[in-house]
Amino acid sequence: MTTSIVSEPETAPADKNFLPGPVLLLGAPGVGKGTQAKALMAAYGIPQVSTGDILRANISKGTELGKAAKALVDQGTLVSDDLVNQMVADRLKQPDTLRGFILDGFPRTLNQANWLDAQLSTDTSTLPVVAISIVVEYEQLLHRITGRRISPAGRIYNIYSNPPKVAGICDVDGSALIQRPDDSEAVFTERMKTFEAQTAPVVEHYRKQGRFEIVDGDRPVEEVTAGINAALHRLRQAPNQ
Fold it and tell me: Residue 74: how many CA atoms within 13 Å on its side-chain side?
């Protein structure tokens, strides 16, 4: 029962002799985690393993795990850790994960982190997870999210860092810019509370084991990418990593 979620790398691996292994990218809403995940995938030729994608794939394919998950979703019930864990285990059996993978949306809890460590330790050829957290100050994140304005055609502006020439109007077609409901300060504040509550135990788990680094995300994209790559190499050079 394997799914077929494969995120194709955009380029060949930058260093075929370096094994990135499993990498958990952490970051609050707005830090640019998605952009950095794509950069890692392209640099090392490894896939992104997204629990959301895996869940949707199992449901759409009608696998046994998917049927069980759909029944819960249809009832408005959260999919259990055990079911998510089974889907992740199934995904990690695919050959594209052998050199490593980027974890997206998992592990979210300490229980999931412990399960993943145990799961990976069953194969002595598999490296342990290393966690890299992209950090940006709260006020900067708030500006990134609440300052975002979008045209009907999908052009994105930011009233703080990339404002339109005329407030509220798209530079290209003159259409009115909108702020998405999810980009409000109230929604952002709640998302941050949830993120911090869920992430703190996971961060501490990897920090205690010497498998955690912080990267400053308040820099140009290329510099953040370089910082993540440097952190990844340092973590993999550490004993038993």
Answer: 7
